[in-house]
Amino acid sequence: MDIDYKINAPVSAQTFLDLLKGSTLGERRPINDLECITGMVNNSNLMISAWQGDTLVGIARSVTDFHYACYLSDLAVLTSHQRLGIGKHLQILTQQQLGPQCKLILLAAPAANEYYKHLGFEHNPRCWVLDRNQTLN
């Protein structure tokens, strides 16, 4: 299988949406909100994409300062292309774009929680999430 990896290549919101729908990540992303999906793509500052011909088969979408912290917002691979090393390669290419002190941070999907351990990630139980719909006291 010939996969072409690209750094910060243009990805349309619809192409990204199609990938999300074809991966397990679509269950936890706002796939019915094209405006939000468009904002997600347009405001990422590091995207590593995996292509088979003209088909987007995987993506690592991040927001980073490139020196201290990189939040890997989405690591998605089409279900038909999973277990082929694409996700691992996307993560490696992401790290290669970062400075030597930059930490790669992500929130694991429940089904993928164990996946990151074998890639060398360390589990950190100190993550907190505040949903926009929650009010601050």
UniProtKB/TrEMBL annotation:
InterPro entries per UniProt: Acetyltransferase_Butenolide, Acyl_CoA_acyltransferase, GNAT_dom
Gene Ontology molecular function: any one: acyltransferase activity, transferring groups other than amino-acyl groups
One Pfam family in the UniProt entry: Acetyltransf_10
Domain N-acetyltransferase: 3-137
Name under which the protein is recorded: GNAT family N-acetyltransferase
The organism of origin for this protein: Psychrosphaera ytuae
Source lineage: Bacteria, Pseudomonadati, Pseudomonadota, Gammaproteobacteria, Alteromonadales
